[in-house]
Structure formats: C-alpha cells, structure tokens
Amino acid sequence: MVEFQTSQLDTVFHALGDATRRQMLHALADGERTVSELADPFSMSLAAASKHIKVLERAGLIRREVRGRTHHCRLVPGPLASANRWLAYYERFWTERLDTLDRLLREEDAGRLTSEREKTDDSDTDAEQPSRRRGDA
Amino acid sequence: MVEFQTSQLDTVFHALGDATRRQMLHALADGERTVSELADPFSMSLAAASKHIKVLERAGLIRREVRGRTHHCRLVPGPLASANRWLAYYERFWTERLDTLDRLLREEDAGRLTSEREKTDDSDTDAEQPSRRRGDA
C-alpha cells in the first residue's frame, strides 16, 4: 500500500512538474475537454500535446473517454489530494512564519489603538459632538 | 514574475517526484542534517545521494552551508508553500466530496438520534435510575 502510494506520488509530482500539464489541469478544472481543446492553447503539435495528456493519464490525474471519434478528458482530483496530504506535513513551517507575522501585526495594532485612545481622551468633547464639528466646517 | 514562479514550480514538483528526495526532506523537517546523514538511510553511493541533494538545492528546497569540511543542509519551506498554493486551487474538488460525506453522516446521525429519543421516551424510568439497573445485573 505504502509502496503503491510512493510510486503514485512519484508519477503525480512528476506530472505536475511541467507548466503545460499544469495548465491542462487548470482547463479541466472548469469541466470536461476534448484532446484538441486541451491542446489548442499551446503552440505545439497534437502529438506533443498528446504526450503530455498521456503523462497526466498515467498519474491518474485525468480520465479519458472515447465517444465516437472524439476523446473526452476530465479531471480526477484524488491524486492531487494525495499530493496535498504529503505537503500538509510541512505546513507548520510556513504557518509558524505566518503566526509570527500575525503576532507582530496584532502588537502593532494594539500599540496604535493605545495611542489613538490617548488622543481621544485628550479631545473627548469633540468626539462626543460630531454634528457640531460638521456644522463648524 | 509569473515566468519565474512557473519555472520554480517546475523544478519544485520535479524535485518532489522522487521518493528518496521526499524522504530527505522529511528528515530535514526534524532539523539540520549533514550530507552524509542525509545519504545514510539509503543503499546508494554518496555520489548518487549527492545528486539528489543537488536537485533539492536547485529547487530551492534546501540550503547548504559548508562549515570546515562538513556540508550542512537545512529545509527551506518557501517553495513547498508555493506548491501547496498551486494545489489549493483544486481543493474544492475533494472538499465537495468530503462535504457530501459529512452531510450524509449528519443525516444518518440525526436519524439515529431521533430513533434513540423515541426509545428513551418509551423507557424513561430506566434511564433515570442507572444505579438500580447496575444493581439488578
């Protein structure tokens, strides 16, 4: 099972390591596409596009269905979820950084609030009568 | 910028497409390792392990520091965060599935609770005196 998952992750990450293939998956996220529709945005032969599609298919990222003379492809999200699970183990590393950033911003906000409150305390009458201030202007 | 990110994702996903390299990153998640320490768990030559380390280095996933005659490696989480962000776009596909599963389980639970409540209503006295029931046994 682990062996299967390992080799699946190998083929999935390998398939994702190419911008053309990632763009094809992006197109399939909007719905089913024929092979020609998938190949269309790229300045490459249908044969070259077809090779990329085969790599995605081998990784289990897409499923191809032949209807008449047309090949229809659709996204299979499972292997992307596996890749996501693998990466999730490392999430703490960037979460820790974001937590530190968050803490610093909160501290800065708290400091700003304190100094604003001090200012408000100095000009309490003005703050209580905004209509009069508007009238003054 | 987009071009840079695209080529960075290419090298990052390519680097992740190999079980040895993923295991090396896993070891580095626990802290700094020397090149020999990273190579140690694998039945391969130091030269072969070194090639894998270079792939990780080129992808920006690890940083190597030379101290005296020893090369020390540490994990750089940024590129993993980029890969994670790319995958996050597809998260809705497996979240949708999990939401459906969650809804079905809640419906099942709700059904079970209703039938349990009906049972409790039938045997209210027993439920209120568990000690007596235990005594009976």
Question: In a nutshell, what does this entry contain?
Answer:
2 copies of one chain form a homodimer. The first copy, chain A, is mainly α and 137 residues long.
Provide tags for this entry.
three-stranded antiparallel beta sheet; mainly alpha; homodimer; 137 residues
Q: How would you portray this structure in words?
A:
2 copies of one chain form a homodimer. In chain A, 72% of the residues lie in helices and 10% in strands. Chain A is mostly helical and 137 residues long. Chain A has a 3-stranded antiparallel beta sheet. The model of chain A is unreliable at 125-137 (pLDDT under 50). The N and C termini of chain A lie far apart (76 Å). Chain A is built from 8 helices and 3 strands. The interface between A and B is medium-sized, with 32 and 32 residues.
Q: Helix segment count of chain A? A: 8
Number of strands of chain A: 3
Integer-rounded radius of gyration of chain A: 28 Å
Mean pLDDT across every amino acid position of chain A: 83
Name the pair of protein chains with the most residues at their interface, and give those residue counts. A-B, 32 and 32 residues
Main sheet overview of chain A = 3 strands, antiparallel
Task: Detail the poorly predicted runs of chain A.
Answer: 125-137
| Distance N to C terminus of chain A | 76 Å
Oligomer: homodimer
Order of helices and strands of chain A: HHEHHEEHHHH
Please state how the strands of the largest beta sheet of chain A are arranged side by side: 1-3-2
Give the overall shape of chain A: elongated
